[in-house]
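Record type: monomer structure entry
Structure origin: computed from sequence
Chain ID: A
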Amino acid sequence: MLTAIWKNENMKWMHKTSTWIIAGLVTAMIIGAALLGKWNGVEEESQWRAEYEQALAQYEEGGEQTAASLTPELAAEYEYRLQENIPPIAAYGQWNYMDEMTLMISFITLFSIIVTSTLVAGEFQSGSVKLLFIRPVARWKLLLGKYLSGMTFAALLTMFTLALVYITGGLLFGFSPLEAPYLYSSEDLLERSIAVHMLSMFGLGFIQTAVMTLFAVMIASLFRSNAMAIGLSVFSMFFGTTATALLAQLNEPLASYSLFANNDLTVFISDNVRQLIEVGPWFSIAVLSCYTLLFAVTAFISFTQRDVAI
C-alpha cells in the first residue's frame, strides 16, 4: 500500500508544469554559470607552482604581508603539493567549476521544499485530503508516502544537477581526469580522488535537503498552509545561520546545538566551506538525528490526530 501511495504522489509532481519549470531553471543556472566562468580562464600547472614557490620563499623570509595571509598549516599544504606535484583544484577547469557549483545544493533544497510542501499542505487547501482520509489507509502511511515522494524528486534533481554540471564543465573546460587528487585538511592533510570528493559533497548535501524538507513537512502538517510551510522553511534556511551566529556571540555552547550549526556536513570534507561553529562530525550527526526525530514525530502526530473540517 505504501508503494502505491508513493507512486501516486510521484505522478502528481511529475505532471505539474512547475516541475518542468524547475528543471529548466536548474539547467539555465548551470549553463549560465559555466558560460560566465569560461571567461575566467584556467590556471596552468606551471603558474601554480611558481606562485606557491614564491609564497613559501616570502613566508620563510618572514614577510609581514605574506605572514598575514599564509598560515603555518597552509604553508605545510603548499610544501606537500609541491613535493607530491598535486595541483590545486583551480588547475582543473572542469573540477574547479564543479566545486563552485556545489552551491546548487541550496537550490535543490529550496525546490524540494516547494514540491513536498505542495504535496502535503496543498491537499488541505484544495480539500482533496478528505478523499484520502476516507480510504482504508493509515494516515501515517499517507504522510510518509508524500515525504518519500518529495525525497524522490530531490534525489532525481540532485542526480540531474550532478550529471549536467559534469557534462557542461567537461564540454566548456575540458574533461579532467577522474583520478585527479583533491587535498583537504582535517586533523591532518588528507588526499582523495576528486571525483569521489564531488560525489561526497552532493551526497552530504542531500542529507541537508532531507532534513530541511522534513522541517517543511512538519510546518505543512501543523498549519496546513502551503505558503506558511514554504515561507517558514525558506526563511529558516537562509536566515538560520545568521541567527545561530548571533546566538554564538551570546552563548556558543548553546548555539552549537542549533540545527543550522550542524546541518551542513560538507564542512568536514572541504576547505572551501567555513564551519559556522567548531563542532565535530559525530556531534553534528547526533544533533541532526535528534532534530530529524523531532520533526518526524511532530509531523506525524499533527497529520494523524487533527480533524479535517468538512
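Annotation 1: The chain has a mean pLDDT of 86.
Annotation 2: The first strand starts at residue 181 and ends at 185.
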